[in-house]
């Protein structure tokens, strides 16, 4: 039986879709059978981040409404045959699917996948209710900003009220240079405020923009963000992985040192 | 500004953390501005029986404090009530 994980944040634009794509791809790289589901009906994005936008024939709403069989709507990843995407519908709205329909769909998928990862829309309305309906656990994504943390706190409360077994925190887009100057809350500050288990921190990395431009998740690459996402994927499976030192590799000298290390 | 102030400057990271802590106390307690306003008015009513207070300057806020009993951080209602004049003998009008 597969494990169902919802990636959520409350606030938009903090990196839910990027996290879903990278953690999901990471889990597939570790040899698991993974399905990513975009539950953001009307504003689909996961297909673009995964670079699979040209392969969509059927979508989530088609499956729920019975316009196609489940297997017909699943898109196989370009690189990893054990990674699949169930895209969302672009021309419908959140009310096209109910939480009960989501639960039923997920029960069916649990039979054939190790991990089912749901990319949750922003907000706390029906889209959120749909996304968390069948989930066993959650990855709560936030950035070290007042607005994002406030929304994350609200989301954590709602997840508890809905009796999810477990919620883990991902602090995204952290800038260690700003933390050092005292102009950004540190990872510890955020964990202290939200008081849930930290499963990983991802640095603000230009490579993320580049990888999204290309439609290829950067998990597993030797960029800092790529390593951070791979570590999160490992921790999701239960492996103990020490936290990455994010202050390394940002300055000119450490980059130079990195070049020499690679050439050795 | 003296040289010393340069070192004392609070950086924005700490400002953010402090603002958030206050914000989350009121978010978590589900205490709406309307309820806070009602509490404020009731406090005013009671205190002004005994003292002449500055109604404009009254401030109330939900915050966090360390409990004397358990030592844990607990939510607390903080009120700042400036007194204009203490009525003689605390007599009730």
SSE map:
The complex is a heterodimer of chains A (264) and B (93).
Chain A: E1 3-8, H1 16-29, E2 34-38, H2 46-50, H3 60-65, H4 70-73, E3 75-76, E4 83-86, H5 99-110, E5 115-119, H6 126-133, E6 137-142, H7 146-161, E7 166-174, H8 176-181, H9 187-194, E8 197-203, H10 206-214, H11 224-236, H12 252-263
Helix pairs in contact in A: 1-11, 5-6
Chain B: H1 3-8, H2 12-28, H3 33-47, E1 51-53, E2 59-66, E3 73-80, E4 83-86
Antiparallel strand pairs in B: 1-4, 2-3
Please tally the helical runs of chain A, counting DSSP H or I stretches of 4 or more residues: 12
Distance from first to last alpha carbon of chain A: 44 Å
CATH class of chain A: Alpha Beta
Percentage of residues in helical conformation of chain A = 40-55%
**Largest beta-sheet details of chain A:** 8 strands, mixed
Q: Total number of β-strand segments of chain B? A: 4
Number of strands of chain A: 8
CATH architecture of chain A, please?
Answer: 3-Layer(aba) Sandwich
Rg of chain B is 18 Å
Tell me the name of the CATH homologous superfamily of chain A. Answer: P-loop containing nucleotide triphosphate hydrolases
Structural class of chain B: alpha+beta
Measure the end-to-end span of chain B.
Answer: 50 Å
Query: What is the percentage of strand-forming residues of chain A?
Result: 15-25%
Task: Describe what is shown at a glance.
The complex is a heterodimer of chains A (264) and B (93). Chain A is built from twelve helices and eight strands.
């Amino acid at each position: 039986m597969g494990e169902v994980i919802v990636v959520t944040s409350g606030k938009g634009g903090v990196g839910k879709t990027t996290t879903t794509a990278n953690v999901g791809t990471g889990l597939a790289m570790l040899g698991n059978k993974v399905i990513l589901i975009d539950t953001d009906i009307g504003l689909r994005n996961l297909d673009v981040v995964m670079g699979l936008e040209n392969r969509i024939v059927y979508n989530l709403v088609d499956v729920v409404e019975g316009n196609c069989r489940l297997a017909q709507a699943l898109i196989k990843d370009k690189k990893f045959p054990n990674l699949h995407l169930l895209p969302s519908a672009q021309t419908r709205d959140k009310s096209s699917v109910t939480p009960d329909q989501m639960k039923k769909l997920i029960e069916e998928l649990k039979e054939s996948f190790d991990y089912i990862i749901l990319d949750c829309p922003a907000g706390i309305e029906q889209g959120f209710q749909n996304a968390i309906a069948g989930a066993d656990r959650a990855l709560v994504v936030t950035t070290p900003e007042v607005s994002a943390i406030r929304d994350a706190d609200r989301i954590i409360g709602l997840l508890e009220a809905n009796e999810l077994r477990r919620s883990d925190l991902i602090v995204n887009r952290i800038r260690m240079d700003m933390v050092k100057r005292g102009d950004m809350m540190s990872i510890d500050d955020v964990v202290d405020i939200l008081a849930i288990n930290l499963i990983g921190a991802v640095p603000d990395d230009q490579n993320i923009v580049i990888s999204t431009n290309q439609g290829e998740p950067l998990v597993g690459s030797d960029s800092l963000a790529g390593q951070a996402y791979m570590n999160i994927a490992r921790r999701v499976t239960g492996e103990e992985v020490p936290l990455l030192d994010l202050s390394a590799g940002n300055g000119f000298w450490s980059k130079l040192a990195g070049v020499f290390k690679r050439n050795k | 500004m003296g040289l010393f102030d340069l070192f004392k400057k609070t950086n924005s990271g700490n400002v953010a953390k402090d603002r958030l802590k206050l914000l989350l106390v009121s978010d978590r307690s589900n205490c709406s501005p309307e309820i806070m306003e009602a509490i404020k008015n009731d406090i005013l009513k009671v205190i002004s029986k005994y003292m002449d207070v500055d109604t404009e300057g009254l401030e109330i806020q939900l915050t966090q404090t360390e409990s004397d009993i358990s030592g844990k951080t607990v939510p607390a209602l903080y009120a700042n009530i400036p007194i204009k004049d203490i009525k003689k003998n605390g007599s009730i009008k």
